[in-house]
């Protein structure tokens, strides 16, 4: 058994999720490792395109293509309404998601969470607690890279003060997640995190 956040998840289910993720990743047309045709250090053209890790046969430079860290906030109210936002840019333009984004260098996860929620919605995170993580695939201009998304339950100081970043988002809603919106999520990891929260009604920051 593996402890994740509030719950304990059987190892068999974890392995199944990992296998499904790998299958989807390798079905994508251009994975990030397939773009490393030349050694970034010495410039030698590789004879093993797509290998993980990348290793230069001449200078020994290695690159492991580890997942990039990202954070997502399940911003909730005491009435169990969830803040969902609609993306105005690709990937996932026109689809729903959670406030969040990539973790900057030198930044703690909790700092990234507070920063991303503030940047995207204008809301100040008051309290937060780690919930669960899921692997994700991020498609940037046709190149797909692995990401690990870490999700937190969040409470904000004033839920009435939502000001969206118009360059990133075009709509928001406070509501219990509907199946229609869950079917229109930009990222599968976001949907899984929301469903995990919904299936565990004891998870709360208001106890």
* Cα separation of the termini: 26 Å
Rg on CA atoms, Å: 19 Å
Helicity, as a percent range: 10-25%
Q: How many helices does DSSP assign?
A: 4
- Biggest sheet features: 4 strands, mixed
Side-by-side strand order of the widest sheet:
8-5-10-9
Secondary-structure-derived class: alpha+beta
Beta fraction? 25-35%
Query: How are helices and strands ordered from N to C?
Result: EEHEEEEEEHEEEHH
Overall pLDDT metric: 88
Tally the beta strands. Answer: 11
Word description of this protein:
This protein is elongated. The longest helix is centred in the first third of the chain and has 17 residues, at 11-27. The two termini are 26 Å apart. The strands form 4 sheets. It has a 4-stranded mixed sheet with strand order 8-5-10-9, sandwiched between helices. It has a 3-stranded antiparallel sheet with strand order 7-6-11, with no helix packed on it. Strands 1-2 form a two-stranded antiparallel ribbon. With 207 residues, the chain is of the alpha+beta class. Strand 9 (125-140) and strand 10 form a beta hairpin. The chain has helices spanning 11-27, 109-121, 179-182, 188-199; strands at 2-4, 7-9, 54-55, 62-63, 68-75, 82-87, 96-97, 100-102, 125-140, 143-156, 169-175. It is built from 4 helices and 11 strands, in the order ββαββββββαβββαα.
Defining traits:
three-stranded antiparallel sheet, disordered N terminus
Task: Summarize it.
The protein is an alpha+beta fold. The chain is 22% helix and 32% strand. The radius of gyration is 19 Å and the shape is elongated.
């Amino acid at each position: 058994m593996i402890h994740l956040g509030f719950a304990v998840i059987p190892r068999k289910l974890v392995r199944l999720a990992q296998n499904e993720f790998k299958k989807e990743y390798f079905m994508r047309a251009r994975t990030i490792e397939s773009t490393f045709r030349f050694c970034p250090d010495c410039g030698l053209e590789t004879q093993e395109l797509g290998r993980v890790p990348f290793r230069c046969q001449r200078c020994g430079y290695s690159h492991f293509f580890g997942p990039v860290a990202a954070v997502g906030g399940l911003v909730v109210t005491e009435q169990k309404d969830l803040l969902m936002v609609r993306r105005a840019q690709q990937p996932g333009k026109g689809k729903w998601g959670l406030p969040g984004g990539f973790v900057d260098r030198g930044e703690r996860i909790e700092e990234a969470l507070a920063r991303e929620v503030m940047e995207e919605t204008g809301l100040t995170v008051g309290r937060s607690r780690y919930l669960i993580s899921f692997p994700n695939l991020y498609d940037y201009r046709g190149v797909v890279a692995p990401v690990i998304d870490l999700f937190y339950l969040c409470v904000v100081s004033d839920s009435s003060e939502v000001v969206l970043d118009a360059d990133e988002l075009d709509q928001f809603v406070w509501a219990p997640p509907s199946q229609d919106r869950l079917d229109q999520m930009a990222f599968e990891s976001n949907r899984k995190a929301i469903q995990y929260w919904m299936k565990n009604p004891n998870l709360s920051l208001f106890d």
